[in-house]
Amino acid sequence: MIEVGPDGRAFLLGGYSPTSGLHHFPVAPLCPYTGAEDVEPVALSCFGTLWSWTAVTVRPPGYEGPVPYGLGVVELVREGLRVVGRLTVSDPAALAFGQPMRVIAEELPGIGTTWAFAPASDAEDVG
Amino acid sequence: MNERGEVNGSRGVEVAGVGLHPFGRFGDTTATAMGVTALRAALADAGWDTAQARSRVGAAFCATAYGGVAAGHRVLGALALTGMPIVDVEAGCASGGAALSLGAAAISRGEHDAVLVVGVEKMPKGMIRSSYFAPWQEQAGLAATPAYFALRAQRTLREHGLEVDDLAALVVKNRRWGAVNADAMFRTEVTAEEVLASPVVCEPLRLWMLCSPNEGAAAVVLRRGRGGVQLAAAALRSHLPGSVLDESTPMAGLVDDTAIIPPSTLAATDAYAAAGLGPDDLDVVECQDTDAARELLSWSELGLCAIGEQRRLLTDDGARSSAINRSGGLLSKGEPLGASALGQVVELVRQLRGHCGDRQVPGARVGLAHTIGRGANASVTIVTT
After folding, report:
1. Closest-CA residue in chain A for B156?
2. What interface predicted TM-score (ipTM) does this complex get?
3. Percent helix, strand, coil in chain B (nearest 5)?
4. Does the N terminus or the C terminus of chain A have fewer Cβ atoms within 10 A?
């Protein structure tokens, strides 16, 4: 679901259906919005903006990692897609609506590499 | 019942009896035993003994999410009422609404003259663990149900011009009525300061802004006919694809989601059409308050107010907002998944009969019950006198 490009930037591997003109994540056999069958895997944007966020303070079932941890929704800049993921920031007061975020690869015990979002500096290329 | 949930045609469906096992925590008492208590109470309320029930009832529907295999058969078996078709129904928080709509449809189709609908649940303690999530999602910390409530609450606050204080005011409203409901789990009034001082579970949601998963049972006897309380609509819908923060909790959704109608609105629209009624006709409402922001969002999704009008309803129009979740809501009663939607219907029927004592809405004649939960599934039930 996540890969790291030659430039060292992590990106999410999503799906795109030319028929529906819509991206989705993670890659599904059919477009989850229209049922179209012409899904092709695509690299999604490395950047986005923060749409909603919180922090989990109590360990949820099946999770053995540290708490608190951030959880949020990021709007990817190009695809018109909102993606749920862990955040590297676990203090909700340190985050703001619309702030630039970037995709990072995160190692988690038991499941290996997964995706997360970290604040991006305004100077970074968010396109 | 037609495809839009209509049950008030020439073959009217009447609520002949309702029964409840209180919601709370009851030690070693099994879900089956609680279901038996609720169903016996509903049959007694209908004035039927077991022999009469056996001769009149054509089918039974049992709502449960955690009850395991053949939960309904265990309840009906304890009452010597097996032999008829017994169907267990799981639709997340809307399980009871789904069971009710199946039962009403069986009567409307002419299949049966009477059906039993029962909901039972004995939830594991702690944060809800759901087989809805894949193991890797649990391991990654992505199966944190209150966190999804919180992500949506953040958006609800922003999009409806609300603040955390409004969430506290909502809890104060519901707990006030829970304090006078003998069947509720939490029976004390609370202040906004106390709510805000309870531990933050997932910002902006404090512990007292979240309902507690618990145990309980509720039962409804439906029969063909007119008289007493009528079941005017029992609608059930699921989510449309595209929303990222629906109770369907997908990993991604579309940015341009303005045209995606939420499942609660879909179900409410069907129910209003089936009953020939609208939001202004409602005297009493039981709506989903799994968290405080969920209830405020539900108000607009059900058409009880416009987007952003919630604070006015909470502060200036107390008569209207205090007729919502007069039982104390899930914030006072707790949420036994399979039983909660039927518990709402039990409350509405008692309200329409004028039997609610200190929490009675005077002269209530039309009631609406709403649940929305995992799936996503949304149910909207309308009862009338």
Report:
1. A52
2. 0.95
3. 40, 25, 40
4. C
Rounded to whole angstroms, the Cα distance separating B115 from B228 reads 17
Beta strands at B86-89 and B59-63: parallel, antiparallel or unpaired: parallel
Question: How crowded is the C-beta side of B159, counted as CA atoms within 13 Å?
Answer: 15
Place of tokens 């897609």: A81
Name B325's Cβ contacts closer than 8 Å, sequence gap at least 6. Answer: B173, B174, B177, B285, B286, B287, B289, B295, B331
**How large is the angle between the packed helices B31-46 and B71-78, nearest 10 degrees?**
60
How far does CA B377 lie from the centroid of its chain? 11
What's the rounded Cα separation, in Å, for the pair B139 and B361? 47
Residues whose CB falls within 8 Å of the CB of residue B50, separated by 6 or more in sequence, listed in order: B43, B79, B80, B81
| Cβ contact B364:B229 at 8 Å | no
Contacts of B139 in chain A (CB under 8 A): 62-64, 108, 110-111
CA distance B156 to B264: 15
Bridge-based pairing state of the strands A112-119 and A81-87: parallel
Q: Model pTM?
A: 0.95
Of B223, B19, B230, nearest in space to B115 by CA = B223
- Given 3-state DSSP classes, what are the helix, strand and coil percentages for chain A, each rounded to the nearest 5? 0, 45, 50
**B252 vs A84: CB contact, 8 Å cut-off?**
yes
B249: closest chain A residue by CA: A84
Closest CA to A104 of A121, A124, A82, A87: A87
Chain A residues touching B199 at Cβ < 8 A? 57
In chain A, which residues have their Cβ closer than 8 Å to the Cβ of B247? none
Distance CA B385, CA B382 (A): 10
**Would you state the pLDDT for residue B11?**
66
For residue B237, the model assigns a pLDDT of 97
Q: Do B255 and A61 touch (CB under 8 A)?
A: no
- What are the per-10-residue average pLDDT scores of chain B (385 residues)? 50 94 96 98 97 96 95 97 97 96 96 97 83 86 92 96 97 97 96 97 97 96 94 96 87 91 97 97 97 97 95 84 95 96 98 96 97 93 97
Q: Yes or no: say if B243 and B258 are a contact pair by the CB < 8 Å rule.
A: no
Residues B171, B121: Cα–Cα separation, whole Å: 24
Q: Do A60 and B139 touch (CB under 8 A)?
A: no
- Yes or no: say if B139 and A62 are a contact pair by the CB < 8 Å rule: yes
